[in-house]
Amino acid sequence: MDTLPGCEILGSGYNVLNGYYADVKSCLSNLFNFGDDYQTVVVGSKSFSMPKPISYHSSIGTSVQSISGNSIQEYSSSLNSKTKVEGNFPFFSSSIEADIGEASANSLLNAFSKVQYRVDLYTLQLPPYHTEYLRTNAKKDIDTMSDLTVLFDTYGTHYLAGLIMGGTAVYTSVTDKTTYSSEYDLSIVAQMSYKSAVSSISASEEQQYKESIKSFQESSRISLNTTGGDPGLGGVHFPDHADDWSASVINYIAFIDFLGELSLVGIWKLASTPERAQEILDFYPTYCEQKQKHYGSDGPMLRARIVPLLKRQFNDDGSGASKDLSVCIPDIGGGWYYLGQVAFPGGDARGNTLVVQEIYPGSGALVEVQKWEKLWDDTGSHKSKNFNLWRGLAFDPVDYVVLSDFFRGGVDNQDAPTKGEAAGIKAVSVSCVVPAKVGSMIWNDIGTHASNDASVWKILPPDQGAIDSSKIEPYYVAVGSHSQPNRPVCYLQRRVLNRSKGPAVWALRAQTDKREHAREMKKVVETTENLFIRESMVTEVLVGRNDDVERVGTFFGVSFFAPAVVLTTRTLMNGKIWVGRKSMSTGGAGELKTGTPARVDVWTVDTSRLESQPETHKLIKDNLKLQHMEDGWNRKAADIALPSKTSGQIIGTTGYEEAAAQVLILQDISMQPFNNSKYPFNVH
Questions:
Q1: Within 13 Å and on the Cβ side, how many CA atoms surround 597?
Q2: What are the boundaries of each domain within the chain?
């Protein structure tokens, strides 16, 4: 007699963080042994054997459930809503990547939904006092294993205590928020779209949701997958054979869902003592932080450049206003955009502003300004030209903002900004900005005799968390009155990484371009007249008879003559540098990671002048003879396991010195220092 499907995985450890949602592929080692005492259960017309301690409940029925999220974080949270796994982490990331795709998940422009049609047959649960069935080796590891990372890697952070068996069809969609339009909740429309696809939608539902379904299907990438049931009737065949597939589930039973909140239980609940349970539980968030998959706007999404304001776009000449106003914009191109006009109290364009572009094109950090909302115009002033103020709005005004308002002056109409006038302005994701402050007034309409009042105010960055404003001119906010605006304003943000660690590893995670900065600073140094760049470790400063500085000596015996020397601090690390056959110790703080290879900034190399040089397998294998030891060179051949597939392991480039370099490699490759577990060198 066959064992009842599901019994073999009930009690297994489960990879909730990077596994699939309700999938046998994410089950790890089974922690329990229920013995050899079996009972018989009947499912449909079939009889199965099942360990007596396991709780079986017949639960025949069908259901349709749906979840959705306006971001991948919301979707992940909805996915976890049934199990309520502890912590705010992106659980079941393999399902996200398989159903949605990593690129789609990382885009801020997408919304996500999942409709699950279930054919339930029965449920299985662990007995109330299941710890008595815990396997001896699992109990020992849970109680004594010192490396909790290994413990979680081996058994998972949770174990499977309850499950639903049957068959399921999952209808997953990735929806473009910029084109999708509906007054109904996304999860409802997704469910109606599923019903329409399998011809189960009622006439009243079709009439009510017709336009929403059309917009949803035109704006979405949809996939449909089945688990359980006859494979020949599932998958792409399911919409035309849904009823036949459902009837076949009894013959193809699968694990299809979790059984509520108690389905996944933390393995710390299996510890023998409260102290050990607390120790494991305390480590759980740390483990999740280390192992979690990052989606969406976790990293920098924009690179920015500071550019001059070269163009005065509009001014208030002829308006009659007592104050003068000019609005200026930068020249843009090459995929760069600006975030709004800059306003000045009269005069020509001056100062600098930021232009930005997405680090990952299509990530959704920048979107088009969809419409302009009028804040004021000078109707009633009876001037020959028109003047007006506008506020830009994206397709989603909650998740995207236009950082500066828009002034049109000296024009022939009171219309919204034209495409040409607003070309290059982008709305930016709120994940890239921080709340800002309203500063002093720049301009008001006093003197225009317009029917309505208006004023323009500076936007100032907050005290912390924003881009340094000392090098750029502020954006502005307008209001239909002479009072300070009370609507929210924003500023481009920056973040500091690794604040929980020491200051040496702090880094700005700003929406700015570090690569561009490095490139520009390198250019400045290289082109400065009478400045020469030399790199070496200075070991002594040599003075003359009158104690005046004459030169500096380096570790490699090269001297540099100079009438003055400036000494600066060095990076404190504990390691050893090898140049050919000569080596030297460095630093003393003990912070250098073992085995870290030397790195070259790819932006400092002109790769267009290089050609690819594939790895030479025989050369490497024939010369991996020596093993570097702490006290010198071990001249015995090292037993080093090379990979069975070496293609692509080591690849470099060749320049003008190719021939000479090959001779040096052939002659001296055996002198490369490395650890047993590492390759002799890395080329990036």
A1: 13
A2: 12-291, 302-496, 606-671
